[in-house]
Amino acid sequence: MSQHLIFLPILLPMFAGVILLMSPFGKTKTNRRFTSLCLSVLTFIASLVLLFTVKADGTQIYAIGDWSAPFGIVLVADPLSTILVCLTTLLGAVCVLYASSSDDEKGSFFHPLVHFLILGVNGAFLTGDAFNLFVFFEVLLIASYSLLMHGGYKRSTRAALHYVIMNLVGSAVFLIALGILYGVLGTLNMADMAQKVSLLQGDDIYLAKIGGLLLLVVFALKGALLPLHLWLPNTYASAMPVVAALFAIMTKVGVYSMMRFYTLIFGEQAGELSHIAQNWLWWLALVTIVMGAIGVIASKDLSKLIANLVIVSVGSLVALISVQTIGSSAAAIYYLVHSTLVTAALFLIVDLVGRQRESVFDRIEAGPPVLQPKLLGLCFIVAAISVIGMPPLSGFIAKVWLLKETVNADHSIVFWSIYLVASLAVLVAVTKAGSTIFWHHLDVQIKPEKQKMVQPGQLIALIILLAGAPLMSIFAGSLSEFSLDAATKLHDFNSNIDVVLTGGLK
Amino acid sequence: MELLYASCIGVLVFCGVFLILRARTFPVVLGLTMFSYAVNLFLFSAGRLSLNKAAVLGYSSDYADPLPQALVLTAIVIGFAMTAFVVILAIRGRADLGTDHVDGYEVEKQLKVKKTRKAKKAKKVKS
């Protein structure tokens, strides 16, 4: 049983998605919600168990169908991917809980789609095979296309159309890149690719370089890095907020793939191809932060503002990845978990505030007073302090760590100044938005039948996400040690390859 | 054979990219389809083009690489599903937005509306 543990975070959501489509479990509203919640919590528990196993026994390998590593597909659960799987399943459970209050009935098949999305994301984190990564990308994308349309506002059709077309082109480019890499390397297993990249000679080096940089285009599209980030603000702002909260993990899939490919395969050991993407990533990250900050200031809706905050966080993450030291990767892991939790929480707050302001919804302008100003205001303050990066919450630690790790990089002065100015811009914009929404009232009262109070399920979901901010700063010591451990494993080239290529045989 | 194969992929990519950059959803969908055909052909050639080689069945010293064929099969299935989805989405977009322009509104129409509004205003001011 324990050897199949790695497969559970993929198998359970698939099982959940399928049985939720069938009669006794998916028939009535209560059945659906109960089954979906139970199974998402079960998935979270399974991934927590996997996390503790990986922490105790080191990286786990699962050869699907018992076909050993370079020939068959393997799943690799190292600390990095397991942390992200835990984060995904936690986010999934929270979103299911939140949506169970009312949002899931605005369209059909919300619960199965959420589980299929989790299946795709978990698969993308766990797989050790480049083509399998593509397949899981498609699984999570098709679930996200349908979730984006959930709720069915007219304005979301346009955003969905752009999102789908962009991603279809991205998938095609992904396949071309994989074709080139397979053509020169003769393998698609990531560990085996890493081993063979350094042995390339002659023209094959240039072909592999083309393949590697085409992959950068794809991951930049998924992760919303600068020239390819334009789809993100509209998509996230037009999706239902709970769906947008779930999507907070999706840009991270692109960032995670960059980490894997450009530290493992095109990392230090890759001979002539080592660090091919480093320069690109560094400068693109800088410009992404600038554009994100401009977007944050210019946003007129709270949801657009948060979508632009996602872009800023992607920029910071990619800057950390491009430094490619163990410390910077560890900081990136900590930052990634922090930013996912806090953005998801912010999207949920937008939803709750928007419902209570009736016609103005989440526009940053004076409107009817929020019905529960103390509760929602407190939640907003916690999330805002964390996202801006002020002490004492997790954002501050993430930010200090980020600055510490980038201090020795080339052109760090440029980065520091841009990053700090961008943080200031974020501070100003978030403060202005908060004070406008909570303190500028019009003398309008909403009719009692239209008043929407916060439901207990919604509040619990929000508090779980918000609790991440103080908890991550209280337990910062052990968490940072664990992310350092994960980063060390990520950078340890030889043990990575040994474990994957021989571990599958045992 | 290589030249023919490569130029075939090239022409398909050219047409695909050209059509994807058009402003109506129907050409865009056609473009995506052509692009994915080109990608499938390209993936197939990743195992090197060869004549008279056996498939991996039984024993043969000289056989064709089976993996790209499996990859192409997967890519075809996924591409097919995605194309079906984008067609439905395009139809829905046409119904929801009232136009098949990818931006959801007609640029020329909007300009015309603005112009007529301006003209009307100018008339009012004059009268």
TrEMBL record, chain A:
<keyword id="KW-0472">Membrane</keyword>
<feature type="transmembrane region" description="Helical">
    <location>
        <begin position="109"/>
        <end position="125"/>
    </location>
</feature>
<dbReference type="GO" id="GO:0008137">
    <property type="term" value="F:NADH dehydrogenase (ubiquinone) activity"/>
</dbReference>
<dbReference type="Pfam" id="PF00361">
    <property type="entry name" value="Proton_antipo_M"/>
</dbReference>
<keyword id="KW-0812">Transmembrane</keyword>
<dbReference type="InterPro" id="IPR001750">
    <property type="entry name" value="ND/Mrp_TM"/>
</dbReference>
<feature type="transmembrane region" description="Helical">
    <location>
        <begin position="413"/>
        <end position="439"/>
    </location>
</feature>
<dbReference type="GO" id="GO:0042773">
    <property type="term" value="P:ATP synthesis coupled electron transport"/>
</dbReference>
<comment type="similarity">
    <text>Belongs to the CPA3 antiporters (TC 2.A.63) subunit D family.</text>
</comment>
<feature type="transmembrane region" description="Helical">
    <location>
        <begin position="459"/>
        <end position="479"/>
    </location>
</feature>
<feature type="transmembrane region" description="Helical">
    <location>
        <begin position="279"/>
        <end position="298"/>
    </location>
</feature>
<dbReference type="InterPro" id="IPR050586">
    <property type="entry name" value="CPA3_Na-H_Antiporter_D"/>
</dbReference>
<keyword id="KW-1133">Transmembrane helix</keyword>
<feature type="transmembrane region" description="Helical">
    <location>
        <begin position="73"/>
        <end position="97"/>
    </location>
</feature>
<feature type="transmembrane region" description="Helical">
    <location>
        <begin position="6"/>
        <end position="22"/>
    </location>
</feature>
<feature type="transmembrane region" description="Helical">
    <location>
        <begin position="375"/>
        <end position="393"/>
    </location>
</feature>
<feature type="transmembrane region" description="Helical">
    <location>
        <begin position="160"/>
        <end position="185"/>
    </location>
</feature>
<dbReference type="InterPro" id="IPR003918">
    <property type="entry name" value="NADH_UbQ_OxRdtase"/>
</dbReference>
<feature type="transmembrane region" description="Helical">
    <location>
        <begin position="131"/>
        <end position="148"/>
    </location>
</feature>
<feature type="domain" description="NADH:quinone oxidoreductase/Mrp antiporter transmembrane">
    <location>
        <begin position="129"/>
        <end position="422"/>
    </location>
</feature>
<feature type="transmembrane region" description="Helical">
    <location>
        <begin position="205"/>
        <end position="225"/>
    </location>
</feature>
<feature type="transmembrane region" description="Helical">
    <location>
        <begin position="332"/>
        <end position="354"/>
    </location>
</feature>
UniProtKB/TrEMBL annotation, chain B:
<keyword id="KW-1003">Cell membrane</keyword>
<keyword id="KW-0472">Membrane</keyword>
<keyword id="KW-0812">Transmembrane</keyword>
<comment type="similarity">
    <text>Belongs to the CPA3 antiporters (TC 2.A.63) subunit C family.</text>
</comment>
<keyword id="KW-1133">Transmembrane helix</keyword>
<feature type="transmembrane region" description="Helical">
    <location>
        <begin position="28"/>
        <end position="50"/>
    </location>
</feature>
<dbReference type="InterPro" id="IPR050601">
    <property type="entry name" value="CPA3_antiporter_subunitC"/>
</dbReference>
<dbReference type="GO" id="GO:0005886">
    <property type="term" value="C:plasma membrane"/>
</dbReference>
<feature type="transmembrane region" description="Helical">
    <location>
        <begin position="70"/>
        <end position="91"/>
    </location>
</feature>
<dbReference type="InterPro" id="IPR039428">
    <property type="entry name" value="NUOK/Mnh_C1-like"/>
</dbReference>
<dbReference type="Pfam" id="PF00420">
    <property type="entry name" value="Oxidored_q2"/>
</dbReference>
<feature type="transmembrane region" description="Helical">
    <location>
        <begin position="6"/>
        <end position="21"/>
    </location>
</feature>
<protein>
    <submittedName>
        <fullName>Na+/H+ antiporter subunit C</fullName>
    </submittedName>
</protein>
